[in-house]
Structures are given as structure tokens and as C-alpha cells.
Amino acid sequence: LQVPRVLSQPTAGSESRRFTNKHSKKALKASLTLGILLGMFFVAWLPFFVTNVTQAVCGCVPAGFFDVLTWLGYCNSTMNPIIYPLFMRDFKRAMGKFLPCCRRSGEPRPSAISFSMRNSNSGARAATSLKNVL
Question: Can you supply one Gene Ontology CC term for this chain's record (predicted)?
Fold first, then answer.
């Protein structure tokens, strides 16, 4: 008697590897985005905080230099809305829904009432979800 081989195991292994690769790519992209954001934050704000402590200890920092470092930190805050859409597709989609310049033609503008009803646990949606649970 011969025992037939199960063909689903190699397929399951390849599916598992594909899922792992996809998950790894997402994790790598998220790590890259976080690294860029934190790196820019430290490059922009660390000199300001070091200078601030130095100013408190010795009082030898010129006011103009302190102002330049403050504006460097402000520039970092300006860069965040540029960096997020470049690296995060979900952020780009969300901004596209609410900014008139990024909305596709034919897409209705979401109203504040529909937005609040979507995020609340009241109304017909709560009744429907309760019915699905029971």
C-alpha cells in the first residue's frame, strides 16, 4: 500500500512565507518612517534643548543663536505633514477625504454629523451590531 502525499503542506508553507514577507515589509516600512520622524525630531530639537540648558547654567548663549535653534525646531514641526503622506498610505487617504485640494472629483465631502455618528455607539449602527452579536 502506498500512502498518498499531502499536497497542501507546501502550499500552506508558501502562503505562510508570503504572509510573513508581507508583514515584514510593512514592519520595515513602519520602522523606517518612525526612524525618519524621530531622527528629524532629534536633529531639530536636541540642539535647542542643549542650548537651553547651557543658557540656564552659564548664560553665555547669544539671543540670535537661540532664536535660530528655536526656528529649527519649528521647521521640524512643519516637515511632519510632508513626511507622513510620503511614507504612510493610510494617512494620505485620510487627508484626501478631508482636504478639498486632495479629494477626487465626484467624492462627496463628509459632513460633521456623519463623521460623529460613525464614531459614536448610538443610532442604527449600534442596534445592527447588537443584533449581529446575538
Answer: plasma membrane
